[in-house]
Backbone:
């Protein structure tokens, strides 16, 4: 299965109004993150096919493995609250200090998001911060995790 991986590096003002809206909602959610240890706050906003937007933010814990990333908080909440609705897109926003590198979802978040993409048989668009006032957009979680693991690999 060979497919072309596409990344779009776009200026905020060139994004669709709905994408701009969910980025702003992710930014607002980021402000409420609980990150007393790393000080690295992350917010996420999930747009569902019913038009509802579900948010999440990272939740740290002194026992580091017990915390949870913003993306998984948002996606798990969305599927718990609206299990029948497909996820259309996810916006991620951070309080990063640098303007020279992208801040993409971690591997665990990519795998978790991909589970729902496979389950709903429809791509989930992901938008996250790139350089300066730009955002990176991918049309599918698979673009961030091309050699993914799913149920088809199980015995």
Residues:
């Amino acid at each position: 299965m060979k497919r072309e991986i596409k990344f779009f590096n776009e200026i905020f003002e060139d994004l669709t109004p709905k994408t701009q809206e969910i980025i702003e909602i992710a930014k607002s959610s980021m402000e409420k993150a609980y990150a007393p240890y790393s000080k690295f706050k992350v917010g996420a906003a999930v747009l569902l096919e019913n038009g509802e937007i579900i948010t999440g933010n990272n939740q740290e814990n002194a026992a580091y493995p017990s915390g949870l990333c913003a993306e998984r908080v948002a996606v798990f909440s969305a599927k718990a609250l609206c299990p029948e609705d497909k996820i259309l897109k996810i916006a991620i926003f951070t309080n990063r200090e640098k303007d020279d590198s992208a801040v993409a979802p971690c591997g665990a978040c990519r795998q978790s998001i991909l589970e729902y993409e496979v389950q709903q048989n429809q791509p989930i668009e992901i938008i996250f911060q790139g350089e300066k006032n730009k955002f990176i957009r991918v049309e599918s979680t698979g673009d961030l995790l091309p050699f993914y693991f799913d149920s088809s690999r199980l015995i």
About this structure: DSSP finds three helices and six strands in the chain.
